Amino acid sequence: MKFKIIPHQLQFKFEAGTSRGVITEKPSWFVVLYDALNPEKFGIGEVSIIPGLSIDNPIEIEKAIEKYANALVLKPDFDTINSISNEWPAVKFGLETALLDYLQKQNCQLFANDFSNGNVGIPINGLVWMGTKEQMKAQLFEKINAGYDCVKIKIGAIGFEHEFDLLKFIRTEFGNDITIRVDANGGFDESNVVSVLEQLASLQIHSIEQPVKAGQTELMASLCTQNIIPIALDEDLIPIRTLEEKQQLLQTIKPQYIILKPSLLGGLNTSKEWIQLAENQQIDWWITSALEANVGLNAIAQFTSTFDINMPQGLGTGQLYHNNIPSPLTIDKGYLWYLPNESNWNFELLDL
Question: What pTM value is reported for the model?
């Protein structure tokens, strides 16, 4: 086995508004593991980071990928993956999924099941990015016209009164036929969060992700205990690494949901560990991509499909980029599908 590392700067089709500012591009690195005697046999994984949110140091990340890829070539097994430092969750995710792909030898079919065989789709929410009220309303109609019955609205940046008006409009226009999730990305604080939650409760909002900034354990635990509306932990999970710390966080805060982003948390196996801990405490969960290209999204989606899914997942990010990797992934009427018999992977952009 040998490897190559291919940097790839992903270019958004639009200005993606978040509470951390507007994003127009995002770095990824593709790791290709291949057989030196048969280069057509290869596995590919994506090391994907969100600067300012991912733990991985963007300045040193290529050196880290090279270091751990060299170790994987010498000992190509999951013990090597598990030995990757917790400082590099995205590197761990990328190498773990590259190894899975290489070992399966099925052209990016990491898990063989009804989803990866093209027989069933995964329900997903439609994501409405932050922007002006008019821009957000236009995105909303686009999602609903495309067949989504669950939408996620990013809030906390343009003034809650405008965002509340938009949410109220959705309820007035579509009634309870549409499930509404909101994602605050820590956009509120102790002075206003209870008022915000009470107003959201009046609109039967399904849940709010990360209403206050990560690390405020007592405040978050209090909000979850009040249960004004269900709360989902997101950024609060990212710095937590040991099994004991994970268990302690869930026991202390007792959230209604947790949001799992494998490339931010340290890979598929780590995400599975979170799921087991959450289910042991009757905490529900869903899985979300973190702006990966189709390589990373595919790995996350196929991993997600190994579970009994009971609600929409956050896997609708495959259409964000001008220069994504063409793949069998497609979205139809609020479902993500993998259709290997209708379209193929095309790695020409990466010059494999």
Answer: 0.95
